[in-house]
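hey team, just a heads up i'm posting the complex here instead of the shared drive bc the drive is being weird again. everything in one block, sequence lines first with there labels, then the predicted structure for the whole assembly after. its two chains so it's a bit long, scroll down
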Amino acid sequence: MIDWVVEPLREPFVVRAFVELALLGLVSGTLGCWIVFAGISYGAESLAHSMLPGLVAAALLGLPLVAGGAVGLLAGATLIALVGRVPRLDSDVGVAVVITGLFGLGVLLGLAPEVPAGLNELLFGDLLAVGWGEIAITAGAALVIGVALWVLHPSFLAVFFDRAGSGALGRRPGGFEVALAVLLALATLVAVQALGNLLVVAMLVGPAATARLLTPRIVPMMATAVAVALAASACGLYLSFHADVAGGAAVTAALCAAFLVALAARPPLARLRAAQA
Amino acid sequence: MNDRLLAGADRLAATYPGESVPAISGFTFEVEAGQRVALLGPNGGGKSTLFRVLTGELAPSSGEVSVSGGLPALVPQTERSRLDYPVSALDVAMMGVLPRLPWWRRPGREDRARAREALARVGLAGLADRTFGELSGGQRQRVLVARALVQDSPLVLLDEPFAGTDVPSAELLTSLFDELAAEGRGLLMATHDIEQARGWDLVLCCNRVQIAFGEPGDVLTPEVIERTYGGAIVTLGAGKAILPPHHHDHGGEHP
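-- predicted structure starts here --
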């Protein structure tokens, strides 16, 4: 039994994967709560998918994936903003068109024989291949996002509570919505290194969605979300190691399982709270 | 200059971006320290638009508007607030300190104490840590009033503060508004309640254009009320009129 626990920890690649996931868990647990309350989970997913052509292009040109992802994100965000200006087109429709278009373009490019990394790796990430260089980039991003969330917390709280009324408190929503989108883009960019284009959203939104079912206050919700992310990361890595399944997919499955457990635990928890009150 | 003047408008008009017809026009009025002014008008009649101009969110398209003493405190309709949001009553009251802080500063311990005091003043000291969405409509309205108390502005804008409130909350709010006026604040309250407006110091009637402004006895004539509400009123004779129940449709006004 002890071997079962300790054995994976003797492998440096497992330790690196866990450090990377722990940093991403800190980011997603805190930032994810704002993504959920600002109602931009769909935007988060779209943004992640829109990077694919950039990632593939970077792989083709032999550039760092982060650089390609950044260009892809910028292109995607610009296109979404432009399509949003087409009259009589719902912004969701615009997002859907741009994202599927870009994603399709990415797949087309990715099927080119010259792509060294392979489409699989770009779509699903290669968690167990994460190196210390990528971890350093993630740590830097986590620090920036953490400081930004600490400073912006009171303003975010007021803006997403009442978008229409926050201007009367001296906090016009526009700038804060852009700030949240920028932080989301940064988080997506670093998370894609480990989790790939398709699974990154599970990490960004899953822990917060789970925590929301369990606690009614924002700060405990963030703490719970970080704990869920860490626990799911550990479970996913053990599953990946012992059952020999893909790391990112195992972590995603663990996150989904956590959500389902929280959903099932909600009615008994509510009864418990009512009994205590 | 009148140094008791808290807000004034002179032939004020305002138009939303992208629209050609002004949402409000011809507003000429003054609110002085210690005055309670009722703002009567139908939904879509420009009450919320006027508030947006006074809080600086919408610029006048013509005419002039002046507000002294910084950003006015706005008490929004509780019916529009999010109930699924993870905040306590204290968190909401604390938001009242934001106008005094630059965006990079966090509220401090004194601010928290002031928010608790404000909640005590609206009779909610014991519910400060309760989730905002779990409170009753009247209690939520009182939390939003507490937020305005924390903001401590000389001019307070009240957007239908009695809509959806229970009797104890309404009584508490009525006497609190009187206290605020006695402290020298100016109150501008959007309302549908003509009887209540009769008890306030001044009345401003509007339906996209200003129809009348003055003391209730002079302003609230059947003719003015009919011009304000169009055909939507029922007259009771003897200069009295009521709105048919339920004239509120809160989705219809400007965002």
